Amino acid sequence: MSMKVGQVVKSAAGHDKGELLVIAGFENEKVLVCDGKHRKLNKPKCKNPRHLEETEMFLQKDSMATDKKLRKTLNKIANPGG
Fold first, then answer.
1. What gap in Å lies between CA 80 and CA 45, rounded to an integer?
2. What pLDDT is attached to residue 58?
3. Residue 65: CA atoms inside 13 Å, Cβ hemisphere, count?
4. What residues form DSSP beta bridges with 21?
5. Is pTM beyond 0.90 here?
6. Distance from C-alpha of 71 to C-alpha of 48, rounded to nearest angstrom
7. In terms of Cα–Cα distance, which of 16, 17, 69, 4 is closest to 41?
8. Alpha-carbon gap, residue 21 to 76, rounded angstroms
9. How many Cβ atoms sit within 10 Å of the Cβ of residue 63?
10. 3 pLDDT band (50/70/90 cuts)?
11. What share of the chain is helix, strand, coil (3-state, %, to 5)?
């Protein structure tokens, strides 16, 4: 599976290990990811793709419209029961 913008990924290394993130773009050989809380949409984190675990989930553009919507959507994915 190749990574695409809007795909939900899990951080496998770094300070954000275990966190769910969404791919916001690509820069050179790096992946730009954000979570709407620590990494906002206007300042995504640049990560090595080897430090990310792909999931089969993708977010629609309206879920990535604002940081608040992104946080809520990722929270629902991480905690489906509550």
1. 25
2. 96
3. 5
4. 9
5. yes
6. 22
7. 69
8. 13
9. 18
10. very high
11. 25, 35, 45
Neighbours of 53 (CB within 10 A): 11
Q: Which two tokens stand for residue 66?
A: 């604002």
- Cβ(30)–Cβ(48) under 8 Å? yes
Instruction: Give the tokens for residue 64.
Output: 């990535």
Q: CA angle at residue 10 from 27 to 41, to 5 degrees?
A: 50
Cα separation, 70 vs 74, in Å, equals 6
Here the tokens at position 60 are: 């629609």
DSSP-assigned beta bridge partners for residue 52: 11
pLDDT at 1 over 70: no
pLDDT digits (tens, 9 = 90+) for 15-64: 999 999 999 999 999 999 999 999 999 999 999 999 999 999 999 989 88
Q: Cα–Cα distance between 33 and 44 in angstroms, integer?
A: 5
Mean pLDDT, range 60-72, rounded to an integer: 93
